[in-house]
Specification:
Keywords: Signal. InterPro entries: Pectin_lyas_fold, Pectin_lyase_fold/virulence. It is built from five helices and 35 strands. By secondary structure, the protein is mainly beta. It has two domains: about 250 residues, no CATH class; about 130 residues, no CATH class. The strands form four sheets. Strands 7-9-12-15-20-23-26-24-21-16-13-10 form a twelve-stranded parallel barrel. The chain has an eight-stranded parallel β-sheet with strand order 4-6-8-11-14-19-22-25. Strands 28-30-32-34 form a four-stranded parallel β-sheet, with no helix packed on it.
């Protein structure tokens, strides 16, 4: 007879199972300390580790030429770069230098800064900059600094300062696709290609032509939260100050590119499609080609965003959630109109050059804020319909350009415009409505214009309303 103190077979198996589980847990929590980029590069290719790098300053050029990439191909790792600063001299690597291709990783911290050999911080002499493609105006052939291609990864608390691209200083006026005028060498911030990835508490200082954070297929269920993306703006009239015959504005005759290009130009500009569905190419040095494309004069009354979009989704990039993010001075702010689904909460987009917000069909914005300083608050790109929008409009006393406050295209929207506290704005740009079947509550002083194409809309407004459409129901409210 078995002693009452003898463990049962079930209990023995349970103890054995717990022992194995504990060993597996300990193995999964293996802690690796690294103190060089070479050690870090090796460690991130393995699995199931907590990798902690010694705080300090490092140079990407500490890695051998041809191997200057932190290829995080391992899975289930926590990579802790708290207190780590990495300097990346422009021109020392031709592609993304942080890639996360594994799954279920946490990439935490780290400050990565692209630097110029001369120590230049802010480009102000765009003439000299764009004529020095080997040391200054050199991008990543359209790639991002950090690319997430695996699934279920989180990048948290990482800061990127992105420098180096060609051309820089002219926004996208010389083309962003294969038919760019002078060649193109972009440099972007963070690319998300995988599924169920999160970018949390990151900062992208975008001082090169390219996107801040952008999402491409087969990405889906992407979350971007607590992030800051900031670019640089330039007055378009300043392009007329570039009078050196080698300057791009002078070479273009101070005109925007037209539809016609020479056969040589078309052949030259057939570049790979990278960094966006507009395409890219790394063209020849502009000083070796005198092709001029004729078009309209460069406008003198707008602000040019020198980078692309702050948070951007491309066709096939799936769904995205944006929460508590701020985008400043980019081409497009929170630009999600090509997503399959999109939700934006508690976010701010200001001082952007083409639009501050836009959404896909059925997209939603709540508790968010924007202005209309250099572009509309929202442009409702491609007339996407059925949007649910709640936005607080910020006054824009520094306004430049002839744009409307907002251009409401598409149908069946539910829109509420709030106003900020303070005196009434005197710069009354209009909210222009062109679609039908929308319900719009305007608590601001800004006027609404219902165009002749607008019908069946219900508008409740504090600001004055001009109804040029048909069958619209309009009523006025007191100042909220």
């Amino acid at each position: 007879m078995r002693s009452p103190l003898e463990p049962s077979r079930f209990l023995r198996l349970s103890i054995a199972w717990l022992a194995v589980a504990c060993c597996q847990t300990l193995q999964a929590q293996t802690k690796i300390q690294v103190s060089t980029l070479s050690e870090l590069r090796s460690a991130v290719q393995q699995n199931d580790q907590t990798i902690v790098m010694k705080p300090g300053h490092y140079m990407l050029t500490d890695l051998p030429e041809g191997s200057r990439v932190l290829a995080c191909s391992g899975s289930s790792n926590t990579i802790d770069l708290t207190g780590v600063e990495v300097t990346v001299p422009v021109g020392t690597t031709p592609r993304s230098y942080i890639t996360i291709s594994g799954d279920d990783n946490v990439f935490r911290g780290g400050t990565f800064e692209d630097t110029y050999e001369s120590g230049l911080q802010e480009v102000t002499d765009f003439s000299a900059y764009n004529q020095d493609r080997s040391k200054l105006a050199k991008g990543l052939r359209g790639s991002s600094v950090l690319a997430i291609t695996g699934d279920n990864n989180t990048v948290v608390g990482t800061k990127l300062t992105v420098r180096g691209s060609f051309p820089y200083g002219y926004g996208s006026i010389y083309g962003i696709g294969a038919n760019n005028t002078f060649g193109l060498d972009k440099r972007c911030g963070i690319l998300v290609n995988g599924r169920r990835n999160t970018v949390d508490g990151c900062e992208v200082q975008q001082k090169a032509f390219g996107h801040g954070i952008y999402i491409q297929p087969p990405a889906d269920e992407t979350t971007v939260k607590n992030c800051l993306v900031e670019g640089v703006m330039r007055q378009s009239k300043d392009l007329y100050l570039e009078t050196n015959p080698r300057d791009l504005p002078a070479r273009s005759g101070y005109q925007l590119p037209g539809e016609r290009q020479s056969g040589r130009s078309r052949e030259r500009n057939r570049g790979g499609r990278r960094g966006g569905d507009e395409g890219n190419g790394s063209g020849p040095d502009p000083t070796t080609n005198t092709n001029v494309v004729e078009g309209k004069p460069i406008p003198k009354d707008i602000m040019l965003p020198l980078a692309e979009d702050g948070i951007r989704v491309y066709t096939g990039g799936g769904s995205v959630t944006v929460d508590n993010c701020t985008v400043k001075k980019m081409r497009g702010g929170i630009r999600l109109y090509l997503a399959s689904r999109a939700t934006v909460t508690n976010s701010t987009a200001i001082d952007c050059g083409n639009t501050n917000f836009n959404l896909p069909k059925g997209g939603k914005i709540t508790g968010s804020t924007g202005n209309f300083a250099y572009a509309p608050l929202s442009d409702f790109r491609l007339s996407r319909s059925d949007q649910d929008i709640e936005l607080t409009i910020l006054p824009s006393p520094h306004i430049v350009g002839p744009h409307n406050l907002a251009d409401v295209l598409g149908s069946n929207h539910k829109i509420v415009f709030h106003r900020t506290d303070g005196p009434l704005d005197t710069n009354l740009r209009p909210i222009v409505i062109q679609g039908d079947g929308s319900t719009i509550r305007n608590e601001t002083e800004y006027p609404i214009i219902l165009q002749s194409s607008a019908s069946g809309n219900t508008v409740v407004s504090f600001g004055p309303v001009t109804d040029l459409g048909s069958n619209n129901n309009v009523s006025q409210i007191e100042r909220p």
